[in-house]
From TrEMBL:
Biased composition (Basic and acidic residues): 43-58, 88-109
InterPro entries in the record: DUF5828
Domain of life: Archaea
Span list, region Disordered: 43-109, 199-228
Name of this protein: Uncharacterized protein
Pfam family, one: DUF5828
Length: 228
């Protein structure tokens, strides 16, 4: 592993980059990091059973996409909002006929809000489709697969391919300098104290458990596992 101002970097085969991601995830946990930002990175980091051009590409496109708008977060489609807008507009006209100007104004305002929300939701969905297509078909040909949130910035790139396998470069930077120093110390401890890192592997236990009539065991490995 190389450490620089831009982060912690490793160059090697797929197993090397998977191990690098696991070490950093575990180091973050050891220094007390938790919360959504941590779990977003833990989900994105490459896993031993994944492929960079399929799984990592899909996860990168998903985390890079436009966030949901107000309407989407409320579970309303553009059509739902337009229907509500029409209902509010009808209410507004009814209130005008009843000489209830204030209520008419409120219904009219709500109608406009729903129209705007419908347009926003439709625009976001259309943009996501364009983003996804551009990212999958263009960006991954020119740039590394990347991840970025308030906790870490990371990128992974395939830099060589030969008969004996692929070579990747995986770099992760902890955005807070103080926290980065703490993580660096833990990673140094791993280098000096751990003889062999047990890389997490995907375990297919459901089929065996079903055949034997027992519950599948709890998941092992990952940032919460022990390493010797």
């Amino acid at each position: 592993m190389e450490e620089s101002i831009s982060g912690f970097k490793v160059r090697g085969d797929w197993g090397d980059v998977v191990e690098h991601g696991e070490r950093i995830a575990l180091a973050l946990r050891e220094v007390g990091v938790d919360g959504d930002a941590y779990y977003e990175f833990d989900e994105w980091r490459p896993k031993t059973h994944e492929r960079i051009d399929e799984d990592v590409s899909e996860k990168t496109a998903a985390q890079a996409s436009v966030d949901e708008g107000e309407g989407e977060r409320a579970g309303e489609s553009p059509g739902d909002d337009l229907q509500t807008a029409g209902e509010k507009l009808t209410e507004s006209y009814e209130k005008v006929e009843e000489n209830d100007t204030e209520s008419a104004r409120e219904s009219w305002g709500e109608s406009i809000e729903h129209v705007a929300r419908a347009a926003d939701s439709a625009s976001r969905k259309a943009l996501r489709k364009v983003e996804d297509a551009v990212y999958r078909n263009v960006m991954t040909q020119m740039a590394p697969y990347y991840f970025d949130n308030e906790l870490v910035s990371a990128n992974i790139q395939e830099v060589a391919r030969a008969e004996d396998g692929e070579t990747f470069v995986f770099e992760v930077n902890v955005n807070d300098d103080e926290l980065k120093g703490e993580v660096s110390e833990v990673l140094d401890d791993y280098e000096s104290e751990i003889d062999r890192w047990h890389v997490e592997t995907e375990k297919r236990t459901d089929e065996v458990a079903a055949a034997e009539g027992v519950e599948p065991p709890a998941e092992e490995g990952g940032p919460d596992s022990t390493t010797t």
